[in-house]
Amino acid sequence: MEIREAREGDWAQIWPFLRDVVAAGETYCWPRDTSEADARTWWMGKPGGRVFVAADADRVLGTAELHPNQPAAGGHVCNAGFMVASHAAGRGIGRALAGHVLEQAANAGYRAMQFNAVVETNTNAVSLWQSLGFRILATIPGAFRHPGHGFVGLHVMHRSLEADAPQP
Ligand SMILES: CC(C)(COP(=O)(O)OP(=O)(O)OC[C@H]1O[C@@H](n2cnc3c(N)ncnc32)[C@H](O)[C@@H]1OP(=O)(O)O)[C@@H](O)C(=O)NCCC(=O)NCCS
């Protein structure tokens, strides 16, 4: 499996599984019926953003995006998003994408990575991020309306990218 910078032509393969993740409404605060055009702008068009894909023989199985969490004076802290096709989940693609994105972020000079809204019931993701050194800084109670669980918390998760930070 190769992890590389996304190309414009990759979107056609990203959209079907990204649409499924968004439509499920369990992990992202996006409208569940987000249009393809809006999704493309959100994922591929963030200011200062970079997009990566995990591909197996040209078949795109997962994607990640990396962008500054805030503009200007907050631009040294990055944020990132991850989506893996459900048929390819649990095979290490999310972990590989996250490792790559963390490395790219550190190389780009970001000082930390922050996730603003990790749904607390998304336990696979929460434990993956914790295993990569992220800490839950706060949980905003009831901030996410889950289609099955009702109002659940959103974690703010953070990891330093400084060379001397404690590693997992
Ligand atoms: C979260 C997500 C990116 C993880 O990607 P993935 O390729 O399935 O994850 P991996 O196979 O790399 O597994 C990472 C860890 O997650 C857990 N995990 C993943 N899938 C699992 C499954 N089906 N059952 C149990 N544990 C699972 C495991 O603890 C695994 O740890 P390990 O490497 O020690 O075995 C993916 O499930 C996804 O796209 N989910 C929907 C969108 C989303 O939640 N994005 C993140 C928002 S914060």
Protein architecture, described:
The chain is 28% helix and 36% strand. It has 168 residues and is α+β, with helices and mostly antiparallel strands. It has a single domain (2-160), classed as 3-Layer(aba) Sandwich (Aminopeptidase). It has a seven-stranded mixed β-sheet with strand order 1-2-3-4-5-7-6. Helix 1 crosses helix 2. The two termini are 24 Å apart. Coenzyme A binds at residues 21, 27, 82-84, 89-95, 115, 118, 122, 124-125, 127-128.
Keywords:
alpha+beta; binds coenzyme A; 7-stranded mixed beta sheet; Aminopeptidase; 4 helices; single chain; 168 residues; 36% strand
> What is the CATH C level class, in words?
Alpha Beta
Query: How many H/I helical runs?
Result: 4
Structure classification = alpha+beta
Largest sheet, described in full?
A: 7 strands, mixed
Can you count the beta strands?
7
Q: What low-confidence regions span 5 or more consecutive residues with pLDDT below 50?
A: none
Beta content comes to 35-45%
CATH homolog superfamily: Gcn5-related N-acetyltransferase (GNAT)
- Return the string of H and E elements: EHHEEEHEHEE
Q: Which strand order spans the largest sheet, edge to edge or round the barrel?
A: 1-2-3-4-5-7-6
